[in-house]
Protein 1
Amino acid sequence: MSIRTRFAPSPTGFLHIGGARTALYNWAWTRRHGGTFVLRIEDTDRARSTAESEAAIVDGLRWLGMDWDEGLSRQSERGDLHRAAIETLLARDRAYRCVCTPDQIEARKQQVTATGAKWTYDGRCAEAAHGPACGPHTVRLRVPKDGRLGWEDLVFGPSGQDAREIGDMVIRRSDGSPLYHLAVVVDDVDMKITHVIRGADHLNNTPFQIALYRALDAPLPQFAHVPLIVGADGRKLSKRRDPVSVQHFREAGYLPEALCNWLVRIGWSHGDQELFSLDEIRALFSLEAAHRSSGQADPQKLDWINQAWIKQLPVGRLVAELQPFLAAVTDPGAAAAATGDAGLPGLVDLLRERSKTLAEMAARARFFALPDDALDYDAKAVQKHWKPALRAPLAALRDALAALPAWEPAGVEAAFEGVLAQHEGLGRGPLAQAVRIAVTGSAASPGIYETLAVLGRDRTAARLARALAAWPAG
RNA sequence: GCUCCCAUCGUCUAGCGGUCUAGGACGUGGCCCUCUCAAGGCCAAAACACGGGUUCGAUUCCCGUUGGGAGCACCA
């Protein structure tokens, strides 16, 4: 039997990292085993579901590098199937109509829970045999009163609950709409899903869903529950407290490779390996190696992983990824110009060692994208490093650079050395800092020779001239 | 409260009875390198929650305790 899996998010917000990881596990495992992976939007809650959210989920998954088969299906478009399944259940007496109102149930529930016992539906309508014309009613599944609703979880091992813990759950609202559990099970059966890989928060839902499979006379799929990703406080991720949306990380300058790498390692490991490409994830991911305990998402580890990817990705890819971030710290025109500049790849190569995110790289590359006459100087750096006495050496350097036959790091360094030799007592550091600020506006940049080499002869000259013109007098 | 689940450094984890004076990674501290910022190299501090068993022998198996989490809807 061929493997079929699905990722079934509800479109009630952005794709969040917990869902992204569940999708990643599904995707990787399915691809590894040559199965079919489908995406099903669980939009039965019409009030909370939005088209924007669905688009965000689709975009997020694509951006991360995942693909799926057989298009995209929406649960809302399968209502007929759900309704028919409920009718079948009713006809076979595996379910019954219940006329208890929410208020009545609430009152009875209060009585039971007051004694400390656990409430499950008391079965008042179970034997009443209400017909279709019984007035406003819900439909409840007949859940066995004894026995066990168990399964062999691919991650958690033997799992289950005693059937009596569950109670007869509602599968159709009084307005005729089916509930989530019914829809999920009917869809999974209909789509011939063989392996349900989902978050451990569904562990408690599984027994009831198993009862549903049995009532439907459908074969049980294999279940694999993966541990939750929790926030720094150890609790379930909260949109309020934690940065959770994939979009957020994308906008903060994290690469999809890094995000996948980070997420796959929370709850799964492969020996001591830390870095995994999407191809490696697809080749190596196994449910046997998945963990059972929940894990925290450590943003500092993400930073490190992101930089690791920044360090090894092809420069052309980084240049392209960098553009929007460059535009954000300058303007679209400057960013486009910089992206077309032959010197940018060289700068990116210098910056990969010092950038944890694309946003940070853009901030460090800003000086390059800015027009020469628009560069702003860091006031504190100027105060500290632009000493009047450095004016003459700087002018000498300007001349030495202008006389350089070839514009490359070694030549620039030679020019520096020449100026240093001419000026007794002048240190390499002070001169480098003065130039660095003149050319980048900041006291921190890649090596000064490499920086000038990448900036180019003309732009360096323009910036030195501008700095000299603004130089503090003794 | 009830049901279910989990438990190795601060965090992610290796470990699937002896190889553990418990390994790696992030982070942290120190040193080196150095024109700044990084990157890199070296070193260091840092964990088997507790108590019972089982066993010749438990981080590894079992049971409790404690701690944490999830679920208890006519939400998904």
Note: Chain A has a mean pLDDT of 95.
Protein 2
Amino acid sequence: MPRPRFHSLSAARQEAILSAALEEFSTHGFVDASLNRIITAAGASKGSLYYYFDGKEDLYGHLLRVQVELMIADAGPFPVPANSDPDTFWSVIENHCVRLVQALEASPQLARLLRDWMSSTGRKGLERTQQDAERTALPWLAQVLAAGQTARAIRTDVPDALLLAVGTAIAGVIDYSILTGSTDPLAQSTAVHTIIEMLRRAIQP
Amino acid sequence: MPRPRFHSLSAARQEAILSAALEEFSTHGFVDASLNRIITAAGASKGSLYYYFDGKEDLYGHLLRVQVELMIADAGPFPVPANSDPDTFWSVIENHCVRLVQALEASPQLARLLRDWMSSTGRKGLERTQQDAERTALPWLAQVLAAGQTARAIRTDVPDALLLAVGTAIAGVIDYSILTGSTDPLAQSTAVHTIIEMLRRAIQP
DNA sequence: GAGATCCTTAGACCACCGGTCGAACCGATG
DNA sequence: CATCGGTTCGACCGGTGGTCTAAGGATCTC
């Protein structure tokens, strides 16, 4: 988390720093991003940046949080489908995936930022950010999983951790297919359909 | 590839360099590994190392190649199952996965090296190594895929690239489950069984 | 044996990295 | 006007991967 001071900075200055950071982190990834370039682009000095943030990871984590919140807001609410049947459960999942893909497609910068983030599990220097993300994402995922299981849409004969791992891996495949495939919305939604269908086969009862 | 000179170095000196590199790369990963530490540990100088290798990536790539070949040799031959029925196809796959997991379990250093390698798709400074790996792995994977399809063990209504992506993702789940799970061989082979069963559900016709 | 010609080695040096730190600046307050 | 705390700055630190030159050392020719 940035120091509270940061939020009492003028909106323009906050924007300058965050957009420079977004540009740098999304084009180079966390590891290869240069704080010095961010500082230069933002018209700030190193001392200032360290006055408002704990360091590189802190800046990255804050940027990530803000951007993900924007994306979630953009993709619309995700109603955890309670007491539904398997088909509607899976169609809700698929539908939300399509909306997320569209939101990502609308902002390639955010897409690259997230891609780098996703592919950096366990990387040194990102421990805090990953703990944070886990702490906010896991309860939500567990909720969805439980809903799927009461809807008899997800099997219960396999450890939850394994189901989550498979789900995360398949999410990566969606990203990969979007990254390497067509940008036509229709083609993308059928790709998502195909992949979610594979996920469903894998983890339905 | 290292310069040909490297191979005419005394075996002891080659060993010193490669084992220092293995130690460093497997404990810190490619990005955070330090060439200086490798040099010091190997009792060599920077000039020498650059005399035999193109740089960090070249050393890493060579080490990876050697280690993977050792592992493949250790896990035994993988007969691509031609003209079989679905059940035997999948049992051959599962069997080979179990053997690979055992080989990995036998050498934690190699396991960590491979884990770091797998999680660094698209990372800057590894482009050549990744191209190399792709060039050697893809034809083999395509062969297995085709064998599975003629055995009616793998569906044909989905692009091959997607099937490969799902397969790779599920392989990552195997690694994850081995990493976070029990070290008991029996538990591991049942975990592999469960995960391969999920893969089978996802990509069988 | 002397000299010349390589291959090999050592480590100083380069630009850059993330992070630290003390000095300077500046508006408000006494 | 002096002081004081919040803010800004950039020189500096130890480290990185990579470059380069000069010296060593073996081998060959005369």
Note: Chain A is about 75% helix and 0% strand.
